[in-house]
Amino acid sequence: MANPILDADAPAFTRRYMNLADPRLGAAALFASDEFFAPKERMLDPQPAVFIPSKYDDHGKWMDGWETRRKRTTGHDFCIVKLARPGTIHGIDIDTSHFTGNFPPAASIEACTSDSPNPQEDGDWREIVPATTLQGNRHHYLDIADARAYTHLRVNIYPDGGIARLRVYGQPKADWSRVARGTLHDLAAIENGAYLVAANNQHFGPASQMLMPGRGVNMGDGWETRRRREPGNDWAIVALAHPGVIRAIEVDTAHFKGNFPDRCSLQAARVAGGTDESLVTQAMFWPVLLPEQKLAMDNVHRFEQEVAALGPVTHVRFNIFPDGGVSRLRIFGDIE
């Protein structure tokens, strides 16, 4: 069975970038104009929304999301969300799953960059999603073309209703000018700005989860491919957070026991120009950074002596043989 987090119709940004609205990474719903039927925090839950037909609470039908009461005055409802990291937003998913007769007819989103504890009042808000028509019980994937980094969002719904989930896909902006040279940094960490370029298969779990902080909490918190029934191997390409000289690599197969890869290897290169899509073919011919290494189940594998001296690189291709699941991938290097 495919992972329910993966929507086959979702655009690439949902599989490529970090969800900046993930509370596990520090995002928070700060304020809502109303949350009578369902609290604002539920809108940021990292798990897909569920519907429990017989579940009610003191306010009425229990809904898995943020839901306001029926508005009987002028105006509209809104919610202020603090992002987990300041970052550039590439796409947003406004998900109204299970909201049918109670979804908002429209929504817009504003963004600001603020150090204030009260950005609602003094934030320099810019509209990044104009008023957009919503439908019930569906995902609304919205591309964002704005290179600025933001810290907060204001989600406006017109005039009232419920949103099951809000996902904000983007790249955190790290200030590398403040980072000391000569110390190792995880250049594949999604919170540092690394992102997934492509993966050949993500049937059971998105490859971008390998770049998340901490160890995986279960087998669903990692990259897992389907069982391979043909020759070849599975792979994922990662754009590093900063060019660097790779000194150590960690491959963590936490929770993967009957389905971990037999072996892995890495290739790497310094890439200038082209597009992410053009890297898929190029990556097949990149120099070897880590020759094939045997893997074990539910284990952290650290490689240092085996890492080739390729000089500064910007991208890696992670190969697993022939298929399987990996919880986390760490690429430690000196920044250029």
Question: Can I get a quick summary?
Answer:
The chain has 336 residues and is mainly beta. Helices cover 4% and strands 41% of the residues. The chain is globular.
Distance between the termini: 43 Å
**Fourth-level CATH superfamily of the largest domain:** Galactose-binding domain-like
| Global morphology | globular
The number of helical segments is: 3
**SSE string, helix = H, strand = E?**
HEEEEEEEHEEEEEEEEEEHEEEEE
Number of strands: 22
Radius of gyration, in Å, reads 21 Å
Task: Name the helicity range.
Answer: under 10%
| Biggest sheet descriptor | 8 strands, antiparallel
User: What is the CATH C level class of the largest domain, in words?
Assistant: Mainly Beta
Structural class: mainly beta
How many structural domains does the protein architecture include?
2
Which CATH architecture of the largest domain would you pick? Answer: Sandwich
CATH topology of the largest domain: Jelly Rolls
Mean pLDDT: 94
* Portion in strands: 35-45%
Poorly predicted runs of 5 or more residues: none
Organism: Caballeronia glathei
Catalytic activity: allantoate + H2O = (S)-ureidoglycolate + urea
Enzyme class: hydrolase
EC number: 3.5.3.4
Keywords for this entry:
eight-stranded antiparallel beta sheet, Jelly Rolls, mainly beta
